[in-house]
Amino acid sequence: MEVLTQSQKDSYARDGYLLLERRLSSTQLSALHGEIDRYVAQAQGLTASTAELDLEETHRPDAPRVRRIKLPHTHSEIFRALMLSDTILAPARDLLGPDLRLHTTKLNMKEAGHGAAVEWHQDMAFYPHSNDAVLAIGVLLDDMGPENGPLQVIPGSHLGPTYDHHADGHFVGAVDPEALGIDMARAVALMGPAGSISIHHGRILHGSALNTSTKPRRILFYEMMAADAWPIMGSMTKFEDLADYDARMLCGQSRQPRLSDWPVRIPLPAPPVGKTIYEIQKGLTARAFETAKD
């Protein structure tokens, strides 16, 4: 164990999540905030999303609203350096072992008063793998309270079924928890001061509401898995070839795929439109969270 205690590891195994407070310094946070400001400035004048920026539906060229910076580790040295640091990798190694492969990165942004909700879902419904040693590390870039749309999880749901994320004959990347009979009173909001880190299992049911506060809510996600977890055919995991896949190793070495018994679902038929979760989830008619009005 590098940074976690055995108690924390046991808690993660039981509940499917952890919150580690104040893991980044004020200097690190300032640098990350500066990078975000640089990207938001690039959204000025845009009329549509780009390869790097996903825009809010309420975005205007003269009033830019960015809801996601896509794959920030590929075009920002600051975000890449943090990804490769022990701040991120040490707790992941404690939970998954020494050999880690990157799945993807994203910076989800909920600006004050309008930040988009994300409906309830399980990450591994999007990208099933040969085993479920998969997690997402979220870096809280702002103070996270109940009013600015914190990530919410259902403790222990990573040990249960993989729910059907389909509607009208295709994958919509979301579920209706009420229809599934899930007791939403059990939901836990992962809140804490800026610079904290959340970790959630790839199978845990989670979502987040609108940001109705006067404060932003920005989380930088690094999604990764044990190197012996390999994508199953039909997964939304994308890579060009084996060299590209090997290049995603974060630490350790690539290992022989390991199979485990977990309730796999495949995200097919593919959604008819959309590449981001925000667009894909429009196919869900029974929404758990309100949407932005303007």
What is the CATH first-level class name? Answer: Mainly Beta
Beginning-to-end CA distance, first to last residue: 47 Å
- Describe the main β-sheet briefly: 8 strands, antiparallel
Helix content range of the residues, please? 10-25%
How many domain regions? 1
Descriptive account of the structure:
This protein is an alpha+beta fold. It has a single domain (6-283), classed as Sandwich (Jelly Rolls), CATH 2.60.120.620. The protein is 20% helix and 21% strand. The strands form three sheets. Strands 1, 2, 3, 4, 6, 11, 13 and 14 form an eight-stranded antiparallel sheet that branches. The mean pLDDT is 94. It comes from Jannaschia pagri. This is Ectoine hydroxylase.
Labels describing this entry:
single chain, 294 residues, alpha+beta, Jelly Rolls, eight-stranded antiparallel beta sheet, four-stranded antiparallel beta sheet, 7 helices, 14 strands, 21% strand, globular
Summary?
The protein has seven helices and 14 strands. By secondary structure, it is an alpha+beta fold. It has one domain: q2cbj1_9rhob like domain (Jelly Rolls), CATH 2.60.120.620.
